[in-house]
Prior knowledge:
By secondary structure, the chain is an all-alpha fold. It contains 13 helices and no strands. The N terminus is likely disordered. This is NnrS family protein. InterPro entries: NnrS (IPR010266).
Amino acid sequence: MKVINLTEPMPTKIKFYQLSQWPLWALAFRPFFLAAGALAVFAMSYWFLILAGYAQWHLTMPATLWHAHEMLFGFAGVVAMGFLLTAAQTWTGVASVSGIKLFLLSMIWLAARLSFFIEIAGFEQLNLYLVSALQLVWWLAGIIILADMLIQAKSSHNYLFVVIASLLCALNVIFLSLVVLNKMSLALGVVDTAVLIMTLLVGVVAGRVVPFFTARGLNLSEQIRTPKLDKLVIVSSFFAIAWFFMSQLFFSAMSTGWIFAWLACLHGARCVLWWHKGILKVPLLWSLHVAYWALSIGLILIALSYFSPIILFKDALHLITVGTIGVMIIAMMVRVSHGHTGRALKAPAYISLAFILIALAAIVRSLLPVYLGHHLAWQLSALLWVAGFSLFLFHCAPILVNRRVDGRRG
């Protein structure tokens, strides 16, 4: 097992061609979080221009499916992989991917984003084949690196993350294959299933870090531990994902509202147990709690959408995609960017504004379409999202590309 040496200092002078020595390629969170922030701003800005009629869409796949793919498999996927490859080094003591290998992995991810816009006469779906191949290579490379680290350290209690990443990889390939076959409604069902996989990842990670961060951030004598509830959340989530996937692709008559209501109760119980009034004074804590509350409420709304025509499934789902995944991602990226570069876990006031803007984007997108009209609500939500992640980039981009404040590697 190759053990990392955190005390080895980074060189102070680096030639531009020495990629392996650049701080940006020291750990996966650096380029992946930077890429996620940039995609969050540019892809959502383009989506806003399409919605507002200022940009035309000429590709073979519908713009809505491109938007869904990039926000889920592009944006959320690269954050998840960046977090896991970084956290695995802490969990295991085994060196994670860095240097040239990390650079190549990042370039594959970037090439997949750009390949969507390749147009060659007579090869209408070439872009989709390229994206499929690049995404598959990127996912498999990340999964293999993660699995190798965990296996070397015999960290069996973390193997679940390899399973989750593998499921996301499989759904990504299935989604793109269905788009190529022009099975658009089935592709949407697959992407909705992938959202549920992401909520499973959020549930597992939150169960580990939210009580721990809360106890440390508030100087509590002990953290809340709910091992039985944590296991029940995981088992129930897998059951809900399988049930929903089958209902979307094979058995449309299957009712899934009840299982979402059950999941909402489980996540809601965790929200209540983890809550502490002191959280409201610490932005890096309340943002995580708000994101998790949004998961419970979003699941309740999804359950109700099966029984009431007033609540639309897609609107309810966006409370999770924007309010849970979006807020959790920006909060965790800020925290990890500070913590893994030797900085204090205290962000400037405008980062609190960024958290609020993403939370407002979730509310506007999921709860206000019935009052504002869907088209206007979508545009306002997109603008709030862009503003929030622009603030993230303004603050964290310099952190991600520069050395740790203590000069060490990482």
